[in-house]
Design goal:
The chain is of the alpha/beta class. The chain contains four helices and eight strands. About 25% of the residues lie in helices and about 25% in strands. The strands form three sheets. Strands 3-4-5 form a three-stranded antiparallel beta sheet, with no helix packed on it. The chain has a three-stranded mixed beta sheet with strand order 6-7-8, with no helix packed on it. The longest helix has 12 residues. The relative contact order is 0.14.
Length: about 150
């Protein structure tokens, strides 16, 4: 039975000044025998992939070779970015969430899917945060009927 080590990415693996400690990077690229590393994050897969590779992790692989939990548990991937599960809102729940969002026009609200992030009432603050976390924000109108909304 392997030992599973799970960890957060932003603020834990990656410091607020956008660095990964060299020892952590070494462990990512060469985990101890019998250890499975499982990053957990609120980010979607593509920004996680870009972030890890930017810091020198998994550069020898075309796809991330480790399991991942993204979207705060909304999407689960096996090795090689194999999508194992998505916990998407039902259409009814999505409609309720959207109705609540529409009641607060002064609040930028984000809806995420396994591969995208959509915004209602975007602000410069939201755009700056999206840039920091390396994901583009699409208008909520681009999310057809809330298909695949997980967070």
């Amino acid at each position: 039975m392997p030992t599973i080590i799970t960890f957060d990415i932003d603020g834990t693996l990656v410091s607020p000044d956008d660095r990964i400690h060299p020892t952590d990077l070494s462990v990512l690229n060469n985990p101890p025998a019998g250890v499975v590393l499982v990053p957990n994050t609120g980010r979607p897969l593509v920004p996680v992939d870009r972030l890890l590779r930017k810091h020198g992790a998994f550069t020898a692989f075309s796809r991330l070779p480790i399991p991942l939990v993204t979207q705060n548990g909304g999407a689960i991937y096996g090795p090689d970015e194999q999508l194992l599960d998505v916990q998407a809102f039902s259409p009814e729940i999505y409609k309720q969430v959207l109705a609540i969002m529409q009641d607060y026009p002064l609040v930028t609200t984000l809806i995420t899917t396994a591969n995208g992030i959509y915004s209602l009432y975007p602000t410069q603050f939201a755009a700056d945060k999206a840039h920091y976390f390396d994901f583009p924000i699409e208008p909520i109108s681009a999310l057809t009927h809330g298909e695949g909304a997980v967070k």
